[in-house]
C-alpha cells in the first residue's frame, strides 16, 4: 500500500475538514434534527463525486454517500448530533455558554462524523490514483445520543450490503477497541386522578407518588442485580408545580444497561414489574414504552488487530509546545479521576512500563484492544450484523469528562482537529488494506458468525416504534 500517497492526499485536504467540523460544532443540532449538519456533509460529498442517497432508513437526517466499485464494501459510520444544554464558548477554561440552555457538542460527534468523512474522501482519492476493487460508503448516522439512530438503520437494512463497518470516537485517550453495555431507554408514564390536596385529597390518586415509589423500588432492586448492570433514571414530568394539587400525571425515563442484550431484557422486565407494582399501590395506571435500545459492541479480533496495527503507525501524535500549553490549561481544571483511571488501566495492561503513561496533559500511548464494556453506543447494533471495529482517538486534554462543557470548549482546537485527522488516517489505511486483502474480510465474517452461535442479535426496540418518536 502506498502510504506516502495516502498521507499526502490527507494532508492536502485536512484544513477543509477542520473547517467542516468547526461548522458542525457551531450548528450543534440535537438528535434527529441534524438538518444543517447532514446537508453540509451531503453537499461536500456530492462535490467530491460521491453518489448520495438522502433520508435512508426513513430517517430524514440519515444518508449514505458511496464511491468506488465492487467488493468489499467498507462502511464508515459518521455521527453529528449534539447534547442538550451544553452550549459553551470555545477555548476558555470556565463554564460560559454561548446561548443559555442551547445544545453543544459535548461528545465530539462533530469530529466523529467529519473524521469518518475525511477518511472516505481520502480512500476515494487514493482509488482514483491506484484503481482497485472496493466501494467506500460514508453513512451519516443521526441521533447516537439517546435516539439509537443506527439501531433503526440496522432494522431498515441500511447496512445490508456492507462487508465491514468502521468507526471511531473522540476521547481524551487513544485506544483500540473496547466493548460497550447493551442499553434500553424506557419511558414510564403514570396517570392518576387530580384533586384538591387539602380539601379532598382522598378523591385523588397521585401519579407522582407512583413515580417516587417506583424509584424507591428500583433502588432496592440494585442489591439483587448483576454487578455490571447499570440502572439510572430522570423524572421528566413531576405533574406540575403546585403542592396543593394531587398530580394526575407524572413520567420517569429509565436507562437499563447490562453487558448483554438478554440481560437487559431480563432486568427491564423486573423494572416494568416494579412500575406495575407502584401503579397498583397508588391506584394509578402506567404506560410503558421502550423508545430506544442499543446492543453491546461485538468485538472482532481480526479487525481490532488490523486497526491497532495502523493506530500504532499514527499515534501518539507529536504535539507542539503551544498545543501542550493549551492542553495543560484544560488538564488543570479537569477531573483527576478521569486520568488516574487511565493510569491504573495502563499499569494493569502494560505492567511496569504502563506506569510511565498518562502523566502529562495529553494521552501519550495507544492502548491495545481490551475486552472492557463501557458506556453504550449504537455501533453495537451494527457490529452484530456486519463485522465492525471502532477505536478512540485523543482529541481532548486528559481529565476531560465525556458529555461536559470542557469537551465542548476544546472542540475547535488544534488538538481536536489533529486527533480527528489521525483517526481519519487510521480508518483510511484500514479500509484500503481490507480492499487489498479480501481474506481478512472473510476471516472477520467467520469470527462474527462463530460469536453469534452463542448469542443471537435482537433489537429491543418494538416494531411499532419509529425513529425520532423520542
Ligand atoms: Zn459519543
From TrEMBL:
Signal peptide: none annotated. SUPFAM superfamilies: Bacterial exopeptidase dimerisation domain (SSF55031), Zn-dependent exopeptidases (SSF53187). It comes from the Bacteria. InterPro entries: Amidohydrolase (IPR017439), Aminobenzoyl-glu_utiliz_pB (IPR017145), Bact_exopeptidase_dim_dom (IPR036264), Peptidase_M20 (IPR002933), Peptidase_M20/M20A_hydrolases (IPR052030). Pfam families: Peptidase_M20. PANTHER family: PEPTIDASE M20, XAA-ARG DIPEPTIDASE. This is Amidohydrolase.
Amino acid at each position: 500500500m502506498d502510504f506516502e500517497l495516502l498521507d499526502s492526499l490527507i494532508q492536502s485536504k485536512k484544513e477543509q475538514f477542520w473547517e467542516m467540523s468547526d461548522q458542525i460544532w457551531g450548528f450543534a443540532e440535537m438528535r434527529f434534527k441534524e438538518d444543517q449538519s447532514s446537508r453540509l456533509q451531503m453537499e461536500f460529498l456530492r462535490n467530491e463525486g460521491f453518489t448520495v442517497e438522502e433520508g435512508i432508513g426513513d430517517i430524514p437526517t440519515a444518508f449514505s454517500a458511496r464511491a468506488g466499485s465492487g467488493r468489499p464494501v467498507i462502511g464508515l459510520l459518521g455521527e453529528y448530533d449534539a447534547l442538550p444544554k451544553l452550549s459553551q464558548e470555545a477555548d476558555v477554561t470556565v463554564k460560559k455558554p454561548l446561548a443559555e440552555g442551547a445544545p453543544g457538542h459535548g461528545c465530539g460527534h462533530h469530529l466523529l462524523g467529519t473524521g469518518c468523512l475525511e477518511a472516505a474522501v481520502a480512500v476515494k482519492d487514493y482509488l482514483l490514483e491506484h484503481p482497485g476493487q472496493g466501494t467506500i460508503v460514508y453513512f451519516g448516522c443521526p441521533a447516537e445520543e439517546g435516539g439509537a439512530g443506527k439501531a433503526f438503520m440496522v432494522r431498515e437494512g441500511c447496512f445490508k450490503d456492507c462487508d465491514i463497518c468502521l468507526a471511531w470516537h473522540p476521547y481524551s485517550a487513544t485506544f483500540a477497541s473496547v466493548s460497550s453495555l447493551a442499553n434500553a431507554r424506557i419511558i414510564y408514564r403514570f396517570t392518576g386522578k387530580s384533586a384538591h390536596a387539602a380539601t379532598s385529597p382522598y378523591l385523588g390518586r397521585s401519579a407522582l407518588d407512583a413515580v417516587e415509589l417506583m424509584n424507591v423500588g428500583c433502588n432496592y432492586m440494585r442489591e439483587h442485580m448483576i454487578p455490571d448492570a447499570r440502572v439510572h433514571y430522570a423524572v421528566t414530568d413531576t405533574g406540575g408545580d403546585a403542592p396543593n394539587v394531587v398530580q394526575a400525571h407524572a413520567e420517569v425515563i429509565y436507562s437499563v444497561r447490562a453487558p448483554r442484550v438478554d440481560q437487559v431484557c431480563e432486568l427491564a422486565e423486573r423494572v416494568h414489574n416494579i412500575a406495575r407494582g407502584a401503579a397498583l399501590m397508588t391506584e394509578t395506571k402506567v404506560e410503558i414504552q421502550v423508545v430506544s435500545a442499543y446492543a453491546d459492541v461485538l468485538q472482532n479480533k481480526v479487525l481490532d488487530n488490523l486497526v491497532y496495527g495502523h493506530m500504532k503507525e499514527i499515534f501518539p501524535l507529536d504535539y507542539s509546545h503551544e498545543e501542550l500549553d493549551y492542553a495543560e490549561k484544560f488538564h488543570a481544571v479537569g477531573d483527576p479521576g478521569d486520568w488516574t483511571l487511565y493510569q491504573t488501566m495502563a499499569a494493569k495492561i502494560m505492567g511496569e512500563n504502563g506506569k510511565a503513561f498518562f502523566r502529562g496533559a495529553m494521552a501519550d500511548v495507544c492502548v491495545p484492544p481490551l475486552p472492557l464494556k463501557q458506556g453504550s453506543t449504537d455501533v453495537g447494533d451494527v457490529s452484530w450484523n456486519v463485522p465492525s471495529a471502532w477505536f478512540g482517538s485523543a482529541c481532548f486534554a486528559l481529565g476531560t469528562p465525556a458529555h461536559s462543557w470542557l469537551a465542548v470548549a476544546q472542540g475547535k482546537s488544534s488538538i481536536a482537529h489533529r486527533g480527528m485527522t489521525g483517526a481519519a488516517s487510521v480508518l483510511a489505511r484500514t479500509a484500503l488494506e481490507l480492499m487489498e486483502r479480501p481474506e481478512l474480510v472473510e476471516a472477520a465474517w467467520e469470527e462474527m458468525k462463530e460469536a453469534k452461535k452463542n448469542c443471537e442479535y435482537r433489537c429491543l426496540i418494538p416494531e411499532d416504534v419509529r425513529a425520532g418518536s423520542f
